[in-house]
Design a protein that fits this description.
Distance between the termini: 8 Å
Strand order of the largest sheet: 2-3-1-4-5
CATH superfamily of one domain: P-loop containing nucleotide triphosphate hydrolases
CATH topology of one domain: Rossmann fold
CATH architecture of one domain: 3-Layer(aba) Sandwich
Strand content: 5-15%
Length: 181
């Protein structure tokens, strides 16, 4: 396991798992959000993001966290040997997103390239125009996408790990640290 793609919906814990795996595997952590979001929440074009991802994954070992298949297709998976799907229940995802957004807004925490979250992300009545509304709606789409991907013959060269609980994550990371996976 040298080239790992960490996927899951927003708030699933992808970045946390990626940081932990990066430490255990001694491989750089590449956060797709940081490559995608420029100043003032300007989004990279598919071409720009693909170029950045190609450069970032040109090494022998890396941990990429993020999805972005709508922009870069299967670019990360074509280079990966392992996919870790962080897949907690929807209630946990929503709680994490709510509490994380409140904390980030209240503290003015910078995310990527000077960007900060705003209270607008909590206006769930705006549907997918709000961050929480988008997370709620995209949860089911992510479930379908990754369940199908695990059985797709095109992904036969990838090893999949589906982690549903914090205990699953701890067991997985511990087993890697001990050299069992």
């Amino acid at each position: 396991m040298k080239r790992v793609s960490i996927v899951g919906c927003s708030g699933s814990g992808k970045s946390t798992v990626a940081r932990r795996l990066s430490d255990v595997l001694n491989a750089p952590h590449i956060e797709l959000d940081a490559l995608h979001w420029g100043p003032d929440w300007s989004a990279a074009s598919p071409e720009e993001l693909s170029d950045q991802v190609r450069r970032a994954t040109n090494a022998d070992a890396w941990i990429v966290d993020g999805n972005y298949q709508s922009k870069i297709g299967t670019l990360v998976w074509q280079r990966a040997d392992t996919v870790v799907w962080v897949n907690p229940p929807r209630w946990r995802v929503m709680w994490r997103c709510l509490s994380r957004t409140v904390r980030r807004v209240a503290t003015g925490q910078e995310l990527w390239n000077g960007n900060r979250e705003s209270w607008d992300g909590l206006k769930i009545w705006r549907g997918e125009q709000s961050f929480l509304g988008w997370v709620w709606a995209s949860y089911a789409r992510n479930q379908e996408r990754y369940e199908a991907a695990m059985t797709d013959p095109q992904n036969a060269g990838l090893t999949f790990h589906r982690l549903r609980t914090p205990k699953d994550v701890d067991r997985f990371v511990t087993s890697l640290a001990k050299g069992y996976v």
